[in-house]
Amino acid sequence: MNKDSKSPKGESRPSYTYKGAGVDIDAGNRLVTDIKPLAKATARAGTDAVLGGFGALFDLKALSYQDPLLVATTDGVGTKLKVALEVHEHKTIGIDLVAMCVNDLITQGAEPVFLLDYIAMGKLTPHIAVDVVAGIAAGCREAGCALIGGETAEMPGLYRNDDYDIAGFAVGVVERDRVLPRGDIAPGDVLLGVASSGLHSNGFSLVRQIVADEGLSYWGPAPFDPARKLGMALLDPTRIYVRSVLGGARAGKIKAIAHITGGGTSENVPRILPKGCIAAIDLESWRLPPVFRWLRERGKLEEKEMLRTLNCGIGLVLVAAPDSFALLRKALTDSGETVFEIGEIVAGQPDADPHVKFSGSLRAE
Questions:
Q1: In this structure, are strands 339-347 and 221-222 parallel, antiparallel, or unpaired?
Q2: Mean pLDDT of the region 198-224
Q3: Lower CB count within 10 Å: N or C terminus of the chain?
Q4: How confident is the model over 152-176, as pLDDT tens digits?
Q5: Which phi and psi angles does 304 have, rounded to 5°?
């Protein structure tokens, strides 16, 4: 204590410290030590995935690409974090973070090679931070990319003690002649829907409002899956599609990929189509999974709202030529994916913006 320190009124007071203001540098250093083995376990060709420096290096030559382009994405997991905080479960939210980034990379045919994370907390709670990073590392291993660095920020006053937010930044590599979407998308091409693992990481502001208005507890049974707690069922992590989809993209079997995130099928599919093309999707070609059925019923959600807010059971939409879609579908199924033939590309006005035309209705049974 500095006994000479005076308040404006002249009273003695202790010297200020960063820790006293709410930021514990020593705890941050211990966290880096704790998570180093997690990052090391994600090492792959091109990096040794060692944390602690001011930056991280990646050796593109180690990948043996002939004419590589880098593709970069960044994302978070939104208010799904609020559910994780409610049930004190932080081990899977990192998988969501990786998935949201790397699934965007593969829409351009890119192999994810490394990821950086950012965690902001009101107060550094080591076991929570380690659980989050463990999930990120697990997601990276599943996607085949290395966790090569990141940042943990302790920000009292901006976040409440228990609150935190996470963001990811991922980089992938693709050969120049394999970039998606391809320029030969045309009427007659087939649309394949690859099943989601649940809500993924979108629409949770709506989901949480419905839960609150129904007076439900996240610790109680899930109305759509009574054998599980509601919070845990809602936290099912976003599916990572890298290993099952990348081979088809490299082999030229996939013309385009849409990742169905915020904006749903209505707004994400047109992003991959050229002018003059319409995605004609038959909503009766797959069944609405239980969590979406429950949300539709209890939230009295109109179909249009469902299709532009939630993935409704479809995590990716792929475009394939008629002569290759059957082999592609088999390859995806053999990789563990559930795949539906959901429609086709049809011709619109030559210079008109692409859009989706739905037929039928979302079916529960």
A1: unpaired
A2: 97
A3: C
A4: 888 888 888 789 999 999 999 999 9
A5: -60, -40
Give the separation between CA 221 and CA 223, rounded to whole angstroms.
Answer: 6
Q: Per-residue pLDDT tens for 248-294?
A: 999 999 999 999 999 999 999 999 999 999 999 999 999 999 999 99
Distance CA 137, CA 240 (A): 13
Q: In the numeric block, which tokens belong to residue 292?
A: 């979406």
Q: Which of 189, 148, 194, 198 is nearest to 276 (CA)?
A: 189
Distances (CA, A) of 142 to 64, 86, 95, 137: 21, 27, 9, 9
Query: Which residues of the chain does CATH 3.30.1330.10 include?
Result: 25-178
Rg of the Cα trace of the chain? 23
CATH 3.90.650.10 boundaries in the chain: 190-359
In sequence order, what are the residues at sequence separation of 6 or more whose Cβ sits closer than 8 angstroms to the Cβ of residue 336?
244
Helix (H, G, I), strand (E, B) or coil at 34: helix
CATH of domain 25-178: 3.30.1330.10
d(CA 116, CA 13): 42
CATH number at 190-359: 3.90.650.10
Q: Is the separation of the CB atoms in 87 and 232 below 8 Å?
A: yes
pLDDT of 131-145, one tens digit each? 999 999 999 999 999
- Is the bond preceding 354 in cis, omega lying within 30 degrees of 0? no
pLDDT tens digits along 52-86: 677 788 888 889 899 999 999 999 999 999 999 99
Instruction: Write the DSSP string, 214-276.
Output: TT--TTSEETTEEEEEHHHHHTPPPPP-HHHHHHHHHTT--SEEEE--TTHHHHHGGGGS-TT
For 101, the token pair is: 């980034």
Q: Which of 122, 117, 125 is nearest to 30 (CA)?
A: 125
Residue 346, phi then psi, degrees to nearest 5: -125, 160
Bridge partners, residue 314, by sequence: 195
Is pLDDT above 80 for 31?
Answer: no
